[in-house]
Amino acid sequence: MEQYLWLIPLGFIVGAYGTLIGAGGGFVLVPILLLLYPDESPEIITCISLAVVFFNALSGSLAYSRMRRIDYKSGLLFSAATIPGAILGALTTAYIPRRLFDAVFGIFMIVVSGFLLFRAKRERETNADNPKHHFMRNLVEADGSNHTFSYNPIVGVGISFFVGYISSLLGIGGGIIHVPALVHFLNFPVHIATATSHFVLAIMALTGTIVHIVAGAFSHGVRRTITLAIGVLFGAQLGAVLSNRVHGVWIIRGLAIALGFVGLRILIMAVGL
Fold first, then answer.
1. pLDDT at 72 exceeding the cut of 80
2. DSSP labels for 195-262?
3. pTM score, two decimals?
4. Nearest to residue 42, comparing CAs of 81, 93, 4?
5. Residue 119's pLDDT band (boundaries 50, 70, 90)?
6. Three-class SS of residue 138?
7. Between the CA of residue 81 and those of 38, 112, 154, 159, what are the distances in Å?
8. Helix locations, 94-221, DSSP H
9. Residue 148: beta bridge partners?
């Protein structure tokens, strides 16, 4: 266990940044694990990451709950949609060669980075109109901030199923897709999106982790998972506190820049340059 203690500060950083942007930290952790353990199978990498994302999302959700930023009704709906996707994604990972996995992951991160950079926008509140078949939501944070918005639940469920599949497949937690999707397609204010996404991530990551455990993929990653989890539990609390001081648009842009650099690095590795 001593040889893995250095992973605790890494987990702390991953937890703080992941919670700040509502992404769970898997998008940071997976590429780092790919670089640190080039001979490990994609299944081991993803199961370690998903388990760590669960502890990060659980800790962050508790912090966001105290701030009253989580839309629980929407979160439970989205969680129900992510579960079958997460199960399917976890089962698919075992059939992907490591080199192909790296290439797909790198391209995916670069595409998402470009989308976020060009689509980053300031937080806004939607009007009080409630289009047909839309869910109307009104949330009041602990500090008194009031948020009113509406969204199409069918679109939300479809997006969440896809998020569940791709996040469990790649071990990234899914927040890097879910947060911008909630903001751009479902009209969620950024800070409500990050908190609600974290709540969904906790359920989704736990589902994917259980599938990996049942499949026997966790036998070589327990110690690394424990040390990383210790770090993220504390880092997530810091990330939630920092979220009060960072404007929504910079959260999205910061996420985009990080994704682009890391995705490019992984892609270069995959093609052997």
1. yes
2. HHHHHHHHHHHHHHHHHHHHTTTTTTTHHHHHHHHHHHHHHHHHHHHHTTTS-HHHHHHHHHHHHHHH
3. 0.77
4. 93
5. low
6. strand
7. 33, 21, 10, 9
8. 98-119, 153-170, 175-184, 190-214
9. 138
Using CA atoms, how far apart are residues 137 and 115, in angstroms rounded to an integer?
Answer: 26
Q: What is the token pair recorded at 258?
A: 């990080």
How many whole angstroms separate alpha carbon 24 and alpha carbon 168?
12
At residue 4, the 3 state secondary structure works out as helix
**Count of other CB atoms within 10 angstroms of residue 99:** 13
10 Å CB burial of residue 141 (0-12, 13-18, 19+) is middle
Per-residue pLDDT tens for 34-59?
Answer: 888 888 887 788 888 888 989 988 99
Enumerate long-range contacts of 220-226, CB under 8 Å, 24 or more apart. Answer: 220/40, 220/44, 221/44, 221/47, 221/48, 221/51, 223/1, 223/4, 224/4, 224/7, 224/48, 225/48, 225/51, 225/52, 226/1, 226/4
CA–CA dist 88, 112 (Å, integer) = 22
**Do residues 200 and 160 lie in contact, with contact meaning Cβ atoms separated by under 8 Å?**
yes
Closest CA to 229 of 22, 21, 26, 23: 26
